[in-house]
Every structure is written in structure tokens, then in C-alpha cells.
Design goal:
InterPro entries: HAD-like_hydrolase_sf (IPR050155), HAD-like_sf (IPR036412), HAD_sf (IPR023214), PGP-like_dom2 (IPR023198)
Strand content: 15-25%
Pfam family, one: Hydrolase
Organism: Streptomyces tamarix
Helix content: 40-55%
Structural class: alpha/beta
Protein name: HAD hydrolase-like protein
Order of helices and strands: EEHHHHEHEHEHEHEHEH
Distance between the termini: 16 Å
Amino acid sequence: MGKHRAHLVWDWNGTLLDDTGAVIEASNAAFEEMGLAPITLERYRELYCVPVPLFYERLLGRLPTEEEWALMDGAFHRHYWARADACGLTDGAAELLEAARAFGRTQSLLSLAPHERLVPLVRQYGIEKWFVRVDGRTGHSTSGKAEHMVRHLRALDGVPPERVVVIGDAADDAIAAAHVGARAVLYTGGSHSRTSLEAAGVPVVDTLAEAVAVAEDLVG
């Protein structure tokens, strides 16, 4: 697979799935439970980072205690998954995924969303057939995507890292790509501000179509 064209490793939340609005709503619902002030989209994009406890450190001015983290994480996910089914794919995402085959491009999906929740959602949107592999997070790690990327690429038998381009909405996607010797393109429509994405030192784009075009240029 992927000997002559880029192999794209897509991120899910905030990239293929247009769920940033749901994330903000869920965050604010969780904050209300914790007695915290609501956050705007702009502020969220300025502060958000992985590992997620560091996001809360930026928000609170200190690391949350283990008890606070457990409460905030649990509240966020309870509110988020109540909204997730109402989210749609990012504009043009389905068409880009379908077009990949005609261009001889392979693609897979790697997300930090729980695997058991991710797979049914991908099937629900009718796009599972366009991926050679779909992997979500297993276990309770908050350390980011790098080690998950190692396992993901290992499972993609025959795809060398130099042909791989990760497309995501977070600086952590670029970190994970670099960890395995792959490239990355970051999309501004999700969790990070353009300024914070540009600090990752990889191409930053405003649409998924641009991301695919840049990915092909990086590998070609």
C-alpha cells in the first residue's frame, strides 16, 4: 500500500468530524458543574493542548488535583457524548475520502477518541470503507497520540513513514507524526488557533482540501 502516493492518516475530532461546537458546549457544561466560568471558542483554541491536564493547568493557573481531574474529565465526556451524534462531518470530508481511491491514495484513521465509541460513529457516517484501518484510543492514557501512532503505523504493513502524512487539528498530531518519521499538515477548523498550530513548524491550512493537496506535495 501507498508506494507511489501519500498515505494519509486522518484525525477524527475537529478534523473529519466537525464537533468543535459540541466540545465547547460540553466544556462549558462541565465547567458549570465545577463552578468555573464559561470559555469562548477563541479562548479554548488559545489554551487547548495535549496532554489534556495541561489544558486545565492553563485554565486554572495550576494543575488540577487527581480528584478534580477525574470530575472534570468525567463531566466533559458525559456532556460531549450526549451531543456527539448531532455533529456532522466537516464540509467536503466525505467527498475527499471517496476521491482518494481514484488518485491511488490510501488512508487510515487514528483518534484519541475511545476505540469502542469511534468505530460505530465512523460506520454511522458511512465512511469506514474508505480507510484501510481505523484505530481509537485504548486504555485511559492522556499522554497524547505519539505512541498510538507507533502502533498504528506498525499495523499498516507496507506503508513506510516517509510516505505518511498526518492530517489533524492539533499540535499533538504534528508531534505524533514527527515521532514516527512522518510529515503532518494541520487544519485550523478544530481545537487550536492558527498561531498555536504554526508554532508546530509544519504546514497549516484552512480547509481539508488544502490539507490533502499539501500532503501530496510533501510526499511527491
